[in-house]
Amino acid sequence: MSVLKCPVCGNEYDINRSNYLCDKCGNILEVIHENDFVKENFKGVWRYKSIIHPGIDKRLIVTRGEGNTFVYGHENISSYSGIKNIKLKHEGENPTGSFKDRGMTVAVSEAMRLGYKKTLCASTGNTSASAASYSAMAGIENFVLIPDGKIAVNKLAQAYVYGSKIIKVPGNFDDAMGKLMNIISKNNNFYVLNSINPWRVEGQKTIAFEILEENEPDFIALPAGNLGNTTAIGKAIKEFHDLGLIKKIPRIVSVQAEGASPFYNLVNNHEDSLNPVNPETIASAIRIGNPVNWKKALKYIKFTNGIVEKVTDDEILNAKRIIDRSGIGCETASAASLAGVKKLSDAGIIDRNDEVFCILTGNVLKDIHIENINFMDINILS
């Protein structure tokens, strides 16, 4: 059995509901299952069907084989971070090049179950690419609101080629989300695919499931923008613990860019509520100043005794350079996880003997910044 439940006031709703805001207090709902973990005859995300969407008919599942991403270790990463046992789980190896595919396979499958013909999202890029692909596979028309001039062209191209209807909105991602919320308040024909949709979190949980089935990490670090992944990783840890599948609770390290760090301010300044900021960072995927999932994310930071850190753009780019030059490569925002871990290692908060997993959220080709290429003379080969 599955229900939608408000994490703040506790009100419960039927899962056939597609309004994911609590009627009583307006907070974003969570999906709660009362199931044991039974391994399914799938690979990747849907292997965990019994604890991400047990009730859906398998014929309605829209999948591209997402999940089961590779884990990298490299001496350059260990040397840079000061941590011997550090691994990088690369979500950029999902079908459209980011972790979003894990959530989108569940959310679009749910749109199919509910009978929707149109999907809608606001996006800085990765969400739009994933939503466009999975909606196209399902035969559903997809609409994308993008912040004008605030999206990487590589990501915009993906949404375009998959056939999305793309609408430019003045301002940043938070402005686009405001437009989206206004649209759905007046028109219930659209199924929303942003991370206010709790089924997205259900798919993204599987990042942590894959780690925890085979490892006992001390820390799991990830970039933090809209805080859907911080919520998902925390929910996965709690569920595996509640099911008795793990005894040790790893600490989440949620890393924001310094220019877009309202969650950092909330946690580290002991504020009562999140105060939105005007975001500015080179890491476009986490250039978000008013993250909608902050209440749920805060709950799981507390549950895991987690840490919220912030890093500068230079620290992100330095970490990215190490990842790229190790032959692994990642999207710019992805490197925030390694940058944050290095900062905590330098401060003595993470020990060199701790086991650490860093989540790389996107592919190296997602957000390209290349300047001053140093071309070699042909004579170097002589």
Model description:
The chain has helices at 49-52, 75-81, 100-114, 126-138, 153-161, 173-186, 198-204, 206-212, 228-242, 262-268, 294-303, 313-325, 336-346; strands at 2-5, 12-13, 30-33, 71-72, 85-90, 118-122, 141-147, 165-169, 190-192, 219-223, 251-257, 307-311, 355-360. With 382 residues, the protein is of the alpha/beta class. Among the domains are: 1-34; 71-98 and 200-360, Rossmann fold, CATH 3.40.50. Strands 4-5-13-10-11-12 form a 6-stranded mixed beta sheet, sandwiched between helices. Helix 5 (153-161) links the parallel strand 7 (141-147) and strand 8. The chain is globular. The model has no long low-confidence stretch (mean pLDDT 93). One of its GO terms (molecular function) is threonine deaminase activity. Pathway: Amino-acid biosynthesis; L-threonine biosynthesis; L-threonine from L-aspartate: step 5/5. This is Threonine synthase.
Short description:
35% of the residues lie in helices and 16% in strands. It has helices at 49-52, 75-81, 100-114, 126-138, 153-161, 173-186, 198-204, 206-212, 228-242, 262-268, 294-303, 313-325, 336-346, and strands at 2-5, 12-13, 30-33, 71-72, 85-90, 118-122, 141-147, 165-169, 190-192, 219-223, 251-257, 307-311, 355-360.
